[in-house]
Amino acid sequence: MATVRNFSTPAEGWQFYSHFIGNALIFIRTRYWNVNDENEGVEKKRESDIIGAWASLVGYLTVVQHRMEQIDQEIAEKMQKIIDMVLELDITDPETHDKIHDELRKLSGNSKLENYLESR
Predict the structure, then answer these.
(1) Which of 27, 59, 67, 89 has the fewest beta carbons closer than 10 A?
(2) Do 8 and 64 contact (CB within 8 A), yes or no?
(3) pTM, rounded to two decimals
(4) Domains of the chain: which residue ranges?
């Protein structure tokens, strides 16, 4: 069974990559956008949760990207672009989520990756 550290195809790497992004963005969305609590303790907990989700996301994406470098450098470079966005942009901003999803769509449009996904 493939893991985040030993996957062997671009399709497996893509599945891990998109999984981590999707889960983190959904979590951040629910923790940040849908809460209107003025309680300072709740606010600090929410901020801590978001920072933790962001840090985990960066870590997991980096692990997948480094493994992908050993499999396909072109895809790894595109993955790095998304990591840079996660690091540089405000992860709580809905526009950032849209930009990340746009980049994911571009990556999934990669012909090498599409061939791997279609062959499964």
Answers:
(1) 59
(2) no
(3) 0.82
(4) 10-118
